[in-house]
Amino acid sequence: MKDWLEKHLCDLNLTKTMERPEGFCRLGYTEEEWKSIDVFVMIAENLGLKVHRDEAGNAIARWEPDRIESLPAIAVGSHLDTVKGGGGYDGVAGVLCGLAAIKKLKEEGFQPICPIEVICFASEESSRFGVSTIGSKAMSGLLNKEELESIKDEHGITIRQAVENMGLNWDKIDKARRTESELKSFIELHIEQGTRIEDHSAEFGVVTAIACPIRLKVKITGQMGHTGTTPMGKRKDALVVAAPLIQFISEAAESLSGASEFPIVATVSTIELKPNAMNVIPGIVELGVDIRSVDDQLKDKMKELITDKCIQLEQSFGVKMELTTLVNNPSVQLDAKVRGKLQEAGESLGYKARILESGAGHDVMNMAAKWPSGLIFIRCRNGLSHHPEEFASLDDLHMGTEIISQYLKNETGQ
């Protein structure tokens, strides 16, 4: 099985070796993503699964016993697109282990009493359009077609154009929506993108909830001036004001997290500076702030602390501070029964579980809005992800395969 995993890991990544210093780049709704999905289809069909592509570009591989085709399916899945210069395990591991679990069950002569699906979702990453999980949003009925269709990538291509460039019809993307009766449950396997499993001497993680973000834009308006002639005491330098705010956000999040039951993180992750000229005092700075926790009240508290700090800085420096909420999504609680079954499946095989939350979003958060859903993590080296050196061992991929296989056997056995 490990040889099979190694070969098909490379195949799905469209490479001969996972040693890629430049990383991988398969953005959503591009030829590169489509080629990778074509490989998924080929592997699935070689396993004897029936595959179809829906109106959003998701590929659904189905193991359907002849006599009970009307029953809802047990589904597992993830995605194959990547960020720019990303690794080859984020998303791919879940798709690969799902297919491998089917292979294992078939080799054992297992006969499920209801259908099993492996789903490869389209365009999970937000790297191209700033919008994530498009395929799973469409499948679960959460896609706002009118709101998204005119959003552009860095080359001016809209989401609508990108989807239609792949041979799909944007006007029919709603048809990817599935009914509640089609699926019984959904699970996803993903690399942890952190080190908590290892830090607690465990081997796999079972996820309770997904920390959806509050995202803020802080606009600081000072006053431009000549860097050579404006006295230091008469300046309204927007960047000077931004500096203590950036430090405050980091330190406040660390303090709040240490005093709370659940962790919280807050990051100033974007900055725009105007006019960004060597001889002009910065007049306008815009900061993007990302706040995440599975405790929504904790996120609100962090936002309140930032708001109060902005008022203080505005008064101290004589600048104008504007705070805008771009996103405020409630965190997603995953199904407790599915979580228990995943933990039981892994521990029955002798693997030690760690119960934890996810700070990153995944396709499962959309599926959870409609179907009982669960998420398991496998370890990744040094917690590194969205990076060319992202890595999960074949041992851990094999473990993930075994856990999914056992879960599917428990759920679909006689």
Description:
There is one protein chain. The chain has 414 residues and is of the alpha/beta class. It folds into 2 domains: 291 residues, 3-Layer(aba) Sandwich (Aminopeptidase); 116 residues, Alpha-Beta Plaits, CATH 3.30.70. 35% of the residues lie in helices and 21% in strands. The protein is built from 12 helices and 13 strands. Strands 1, 2, 3, 4, 5, 6, 11, 12 and 13 form a 9-stranded mixed beta sheet that branches. The protein has a 4-stranded antiparallel beta sheet with strand order 8-9-7-10, covered by helices on one side. The longest helix has 22 residues. The two termini are 25 Å apart. The relative contact order is 0.17. The model has no long low-confidence stretch (mean pLDDT 95).
